């Protein structure tokens, strides 16, 4: 497939799927630009890696051109083709039906608005078998993060609730901050006691790309980490508790996703409407790399637990299947995965 053909096929499939117009225009514009270019000029840009210096060529369109020019079917196109004949709503509904639980939620012990019991009972009413309670770690003082002593207290509370709510299970957990050097913001002996550890970057989101990549990969390589939370840190919807918009952090996505595969860390598909993180242009290559995923609500209130439908739709659009999603696993299998890394 020639680059022009690949770009135009992507634009066609985007239009058919109802993607935003500006995305379609980006691919059609890139196709028009390189169609008018002498073949040797295009080859030189591909060899030198200078496609993004051309007007109207961004990172995604450049990658498509490079892959096609080298004789491969572009990853972006393969993902679109994989979902071209399956209605997104049906595929998303199948993923939602397969989910057994949610691996990222908050209670009023940190910055959530409701007690643990209410969050758990709501999750059970939604049909879940389990809910991971992942309140923040101590460094995130603005979110009333839990120091080690309070986390230990929470473990006792969860143990009592689990006796009452069985067979439903509240998974002990934490959303632990990834520190500047890639360390984790909690006592590691305590982290080892937890069922689920979601590791996320919350500070210095504008860090240099190389340093941010090293920071994230170091955390992913820690055997205590199960899920990489909202990996770009972006905020795409202004207002509410998070204030204004926030751009994505810069990091080498290929290295980060390769590390997730190597260390069997699930990439979170964060379902919050203000996050929707990672973007679809990163979800597709993450799936192609062989990553596992966790579709999480990141709920801070009971009604937000049903936000998982957003993540299911995004997974369907990127041809991610239930078998690639760790929280489709029954509780026994999930714990076998999370506790034996």
- Measured on Cα atoms, how large is the radius of gyration? 21 Å
Spatial shape? globular
Number of strands: 7
Query: Strand order across the biggest sheet?
Result: 1-2-3-4-5-6-7
How would you characterize this protein structure?
The chain is an alpha/beta fold and 341 residues long. It folds into two domains: 3-82, Orthogonal Bundle (DNA polymerase, domain 1), CATH 1.10.150; 88-338, Metal-dependent hydrolases (TIM Barrel, Alpha-Beta Barrel), CATH 3.20.20. Helices cover 44% and strands 9% of the residues. The chain has 14 helices and seven strands. It has helices at 3-16, 21-35, 39-48, 59-69, 75-82, 88-98, 116-125, 148-165, 188-191, 209-220, 253-262, 280-289, 308-317, 331-338; strands at 101-102, 130-133, 169-177, 196-200, 227-228, 266-270, 293-296. Strands 1-2-3-4-5-6-7 form a seven-stranded parallel beta sheet. β3, α9 (188-191) and β4 (196-200) form a beta-alpha-beta unit. α1 packs across α4 (59-69), α1 (3-16) runs parallel beside α5 (75-82) and α10 (209-220) runs parallel beside α11 (253-262). The protein is globular, with a radius of gyration of 21 Å.
In short:
With 341 residues, this protein is α/β, with parallel strands linked by helices. Helix content is 44%, strand content 9%. The chain has helices spanning 3-16, 21-35, 39-48, 59-69, 75-82, 88-98, 116-125, 148-165, 188-191, 209-220, 253-262, 280-289, 308-317, 331-338, and strands at residues 101-102, 130-133, 169-177, 196-200, 227-228, 266-270, 293-296.
């Amino acid at each position: 497939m020639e680059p022009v053909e690949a770009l135009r096929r992507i634009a066609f499939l985007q239009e058919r799927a109802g993607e935003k117009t500006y995305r379609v225009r980006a691919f059609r514009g890139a196709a028009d630009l390189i169609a008018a270019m002498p073949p040797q000029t295009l080859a030189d840009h591909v060899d030198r890696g200078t496609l993004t210096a051309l007007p109207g060529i961004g990172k995604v369109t450049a990658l498509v051109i490079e892959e096609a020019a080298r004789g491969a079917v572009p990853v972006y196109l393969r993902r679109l083709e994989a979902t071209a004949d399956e209605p997104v709503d049906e595929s998303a509904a199948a993923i939602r039906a397969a989910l057994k639980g949610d691996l990222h939620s908050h209670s009023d012990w940190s910055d959530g608005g409701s007690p643990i019991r209410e969050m758990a009972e709501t999750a059970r009413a939604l049909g879940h078998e389990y809910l991971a309670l992942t309140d923040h770690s101590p460094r995130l003082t603005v979110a009333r993060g839990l120091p080690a002593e309070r986390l230990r207290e929470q473990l006792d509370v969860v143990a009592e609730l689990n006796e009452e709510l069985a067979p439903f299970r509240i998974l002990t957990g934490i959303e632990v901050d990834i520190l500047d050097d890639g360390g984790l913001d909690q006592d590691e002996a305590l982290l080892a006691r937890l069922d689920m550890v979601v590791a996320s970057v919350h500070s210095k989101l504008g860090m240099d790309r190389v340093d941010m990549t090293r920071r994230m990969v170091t955390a992913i390589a820690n055997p205590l980490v199960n899920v990489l939370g909202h990996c770009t840190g972006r905020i795409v919807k202004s207002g509410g508790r998070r204030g204004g918009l926030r751009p994505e952090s810069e990091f080498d996505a290929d290295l980060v996703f390769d590390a997730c595969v190597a260390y069997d860390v699930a990439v979170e598909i964060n379902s919050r409407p203000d996050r929707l993180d990672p973007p679809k242009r990163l979800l597709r290559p993450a799936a192609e790399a062989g990553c596992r995923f966790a579709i999480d609500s990141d709920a801070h209130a009971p009604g937000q637990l049903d936000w998982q439908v957003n993540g299911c739709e995004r997974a369907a659009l990127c041809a991610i299947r239930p078998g690639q999603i760790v929280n489709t696993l029954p509780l026994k299998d999930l714990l076998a995965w999370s506790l034996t890394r």
